[in-house]
Amino acid sequence: MPTIETLVLLVFLSFLPPILYTIWIRNTERCHREQWKPIFLCFLWGATIAIVASLILEIMLEMPLTTSWSQGGMTPFLATVVIAPVVEEFTKPLALHLRSVKSNLDELEDGLIYGAVAGLGFSATENLLYGFSFLSEGFFIFLVLMATRSFGSCLLHASATALTGYGYGKTVMKHASFLGVLPYFLLAIFLHGFYNFLLSYEFVGVASGLVLAFLFVILAITLIRNKIKILDEKTC
Q1: CA 32, 41, 85, 174: dihedral to nearest 10 degrees?
Q2: d(Cα 145, Cα 126) in Å, to the nearest integer?
Q3: 222-233 burial, b for 16+ CB within 10 Å, e for fewer?
């Protein structure tokens, strides 16, 4: 059983990086920065409701695969590359439909920011859940795995959900059909699924897959932040 000190460290390492990333993303805007209340609500949604809903939906969708798929070895791969991205990229951006958040969607970059923050809230609790299992691997391995998740997974969730948030924000501002969100949602699923695929990449070794995944997510978050800056400059 982990000690109280170890559990406190686990919570600290799980939540501190996503919180710092949240401040970083929010402060990417120079003009008309988002209020802290909707930022907090998006983070809280991702860290609680989205994570619980995703766990339930993923279990429900994986059960038919486990019982009927003739090649059981494919089930974990499909769950990681297909089911998890679809479910998680559906539950996380629902934070933008909260009244206090939706009412603040008055600039195109807002959807990117709120979506990213919801993704970061999700990654915080996901870090906590994975981190608890990492404790059995020894303290050094625990720190390495937590550092890996604090970088790659956090930025992946922020980047992917920012895309759907952007699509949702555009439809709200333009009073358009919500079908307009679909291309951004599908792109978010692809981004998430491709990242997970790279982490499962074993053709040239796990380390190579991890490096490719990190390069991919660095590119993604850089593009997201650049888009926020470009849109922000137009409204200053």
Answers
A1: -50
A2: 13
A3: eebbebbeebbe
Distance between CA atoms of residues 31 and 204, nearest Å: 46
Amino acid code (one letter) for 97: H
Residue pair 119/162 in contact (Cβ under 8 Å)? The answer is: yes
- What percentage of the chain's residues is helix, strand, coil (to nearest 5)? 85, 0, 15
Supply 18's token pair.
């996503």
pTM exceeds 0.85, yes or no: yes
Q: What gap in Å lies between CA 33 and CA 53, rounded to an integer? A: 30
pLDDT tens, residue by residue, 57-87: 999 998 777 666 555 566 778 889 999 999 9
Distance in angstroms (rounded) separating the CA atoms of residues 49 and 38 = 15
The full length of the chain comes to 236
Q: Which amino acid is at 107?
A: E
HSE (CB half, 13 Å, CA atoms) of 143?
Answer: 4
Q: Which amino acid is at 31?
A: C
- For the record, the structure tokens of 187 come out as 């792109």
